[in-house]
């Protein structure tokens, strides 16, 4: 895996294929759509998630196509997760989400 921007690119590739199933500040459960299975298989999802600042733990259930992420909501704000979820319906959020993720990943 490359630099922080490669990580942002990988994450942005997955976003349109993820749905938030449950979310409270500090924990989010995401479900992978069937449309994202090929992209998911090509990526090191564990590597992507583990490199995101503020992630304190995560579990991937391949059979259920779900990922539960425990995170520090002081580092990864609840609002950023909401923007990432809305990105599917509002593609104009892409530059804002990319910018916020890029800033976060550059530390």
Structure overview:
- It is a single chain.
- This protein is α+β, with helices and mostly antiparallel strands.
- It has one domain.
- It contains five helices and four strands; from the N terminus they run H-E-E-H-H-E-E-H-H.
- It has a four-stranded antiparallel beta sheet with strand order 1-2-4-3.
- Strand 3 and strand 4 form a beta hairpin.
- Helix 1 (4-14) runs antiparallel to helix 5 (94-106).
- The chain is globular and about 30 Å long.
Please give a handful of descriptors for the protein shown.
107 residues, alpha+beta, 4 strands, globular
Q: Layout of SSEs?
A:
Blueprint: H1 4-14, E1 18-24, E2 27-32, H2 37-42, H3 45-50, E3 55-61, E4 66-71, H4 78-86, H5 94-106
Antiparallel strand pairs: 1-2, 2-4, 3-4
Distance between the termini: 17 Å
The H/E string reads: HEEHHEEHH
Rounded to an integer, what's the Rg over CA atoms?
13 Å
Total count of helical runs of at least 4 residues: 5
Q: Low-confidence runs (pLDDT<50, min 5 residues)?
A: none
Helix content: 40-55%
Count of domain modules: 1
Q: Give a short account of the largest sheet.
A: 4 strands, antiparallel
């Amino acid at each position: 895996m490359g630099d922080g921007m490669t990580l942002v690119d990988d994450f942005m590739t997955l976003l349109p294929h993820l749905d938030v199933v449950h979310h409270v500040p500090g924990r989010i459960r995401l479900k992978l759509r069937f449309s994202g299975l090929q992209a998911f298989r090509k990526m090191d999802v564990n590597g992507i998630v583990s490199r995101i600042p503020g992630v304190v733990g995560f579990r991937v259930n391949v059979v259920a196509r779900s990922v539960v992420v425990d995170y520090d909501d002081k580092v990864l704000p609840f609002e950023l997760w909401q923007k990432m979820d809305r990105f599917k319906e509002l593609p104009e959020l892409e530059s804002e989400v990319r910018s916020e993720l890029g800033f976060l990943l550059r530390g």
